[in-house]
Amino acid sequence: MKGRLVLKNIILRLKLGVANHEKISFRDVPVTAVWTGEVAVGPSIDYSDVCDTLAGFDEREYDYIEDLASDILSLLRREYPCGRWAVTITKPFPPVSLKLESASFTLEGGENG
Q1: Cα Rg of the chain, angstroms
Q2: I need a surface site. Which of 9, 25, 27, 44 has the fewest CB within 10 A?
Q3: CB burial class (10 A; 0-12, 13-18, 19+) of residue 98?
Q4: Handedness of CA 57, 61, 67, 68 (dihedral sign)
Q5: For 2-110, which CATH class?
Q6: pTM for the whole thing?
Q7: Contacts 24+ apart (CB under 8 A), 17-21
Q8: What's the half-sphere exposure (Cβ side, CA atoms, 13 Å) at 10?
Q9: Could you tell me the CA-to-CA distances from 13 to 28, 57, 90, 105 in Å, in that order?
Q10: pLDDT level of residue 42 (50, 70, 90 thresholds)
């Protein structure tokens, strides 16, 4: 049997953005991590452990949401190699020429890719 675990909107406090004014203070950045894989009896992935693993990203600084997604995906694949992971980073209200609620980027990888 295959199963899917969705950890929606894990909040990391980060300095995120290319512009200097975006890195003046920390902001809440929602991260969604999705695991898909074979399920045995009991939980395949402990979501509390995943949150503990991602806590190391708190108070870091990133220019691009793509780089953050790549770093998180690499860590999850290393710590939990079975199954497939997808990581979505959402940047609320990015500073662009029009009002934009959020920008997000999803990166996937695992078992066969």
Answers
A1: 15
A2: 25
A3: exposed
A4: positive
A5: alpha beta
A6: 0.91
A7: 17/63, 17/91, 17/94, 17/95, 18/63, 18/64, 19/95, 21/95
A8: 24
A9: 5, 8, 12, 17
A10: low
CA–CA gap between residue 63 and residue 106 (Å, rounded)? 16
State which amino acid sits at residue 26.
F
Confidence of residue 112 (pLDDT cuts 50, 70, 90): low
In this structure, the number of other CB atoms found within 10 A of the CB of residue 29 comes to: 23
Give domain limits for the chain: 2-110
- Amino acid identity of 57? F
- Could you tell me which residues are beta bridge partners of residue 37? 3
Question: What's the pLDDT score for residue 21?
Answer: 87
Q: Coil, strand or helix: which one is 71?
A: helix
- The whole-angstrom separation of Cα 3 and Cα 70 is 23
Name the pLDDT band for 88 (thresholds 50, 70, 90).
very high
pLDDT tens digits along 2-18: 889 999 999 999 999 99
